[in-house]
Amino acid sequence: MKNNHLININNELQNNYKKYNVKIISLKYISNYIIILKLKIVDIKKFFYNPGQYIKLYIDKDIRQYSIADYIDEYQIIELHIKYSYNGIFSKFLHEHKRNNIYQIEGPFGNFYIKDINNNNQIIIFIAGGTGFAAIKAIINNIIRNNYYYKKIYFYWGVSDINDFYMQDIIYYWQNKNKNFEYIPVISAYNKFKYSSHYKFGHLHDVVMNDFDDLSAIQCYACGSPDMVKIIYDNLIKYKKLSHDNFYSDVFIPKK
């Protein structure tokens, strides 16, 4: 399930979606739990999307929804991040798929993207839980690639264990390319002695709340489980003066 705003869902782009034929060109396990799946669109028609949106992937009678983590327009390649589920239906399909089979996607869907691009005075907070990183990756990549300027960009990524972080190299690249970008990795398993001081510990919403006093002029983009996103929304609105209109969310419920 996907929501683009926790309270008011804006469907302004829903009528622009199309169906495309794709084939799997790459499937890579980058951790015990995360699969990077790359699909190539084999149709002649162009795929247009805003970084942060998602697609539906049709596998036999099953439909899965995934945020687009990256899209290479020149080669029409879509990158998805999938959490592996042992004995899960879709995980079994990925294990047994045939490389040249043709599948179908539909999209793009959603309004989880930056509307006011390249706003010099804007401060943005991105918050991701687990594979919620995918949609955030697409948005930040777009900012870095196009040299869009923002006053400050904060990226909080929360996981249960240090081994749940992945693709750290691209985040370090963002840090090197944009002096206004700050990365805050957050680990919920509270064991300060196990990890370096590079990390923060606790729940995502608590860490963000400890770092800011007033969010009234700041935009916030959150992507993760429904519970995570709702807690962040409730607390930042109630205690940190975040405006409802400045909160954007992409909520997912994983399927097996």
TrEMBL record:
Annotated InterPro entries: Cbr1-like_FAD-bd_dom, FAD-bd_FR_type, FNR_nucleotide-bd, MRET, OxRdtase_FAD/NAD-bd, Riboflavin_synthase-like_b-brl
Q: Where is the FAD-binding FR-type domain?
A: 17-115
Q: Where are the transmembrane segments?
A: 123-144
Xref: Pfam families: FAD_binding_6, NAD_binding_1
Q: Which GO terms describe its molecular function?
A: 2 iron, 2 sulfur cluster binding; oxidoreductase activity
Its required cofactor(s), as named, are: FAD
- Per the UniProt entry, the Enzyme Commission number(s) are 1.17.1.-
Q: Nucleotidyltransferase: present as a keyword of the record? A: no
What is the protein's name according to its record?
CDP-6-deoxy-L-threo-D-glycero-4-hexulose-3-dehydrase reductase
* Source organism of the structure: Candidatus Kinetoplastidibacterium kentomonadis
Taxonomic lineage is: Bacteria, Pseudomonadati, Pseudomonadota, Betaproteobacteria, Candidatus Kinetoplastidibacterium
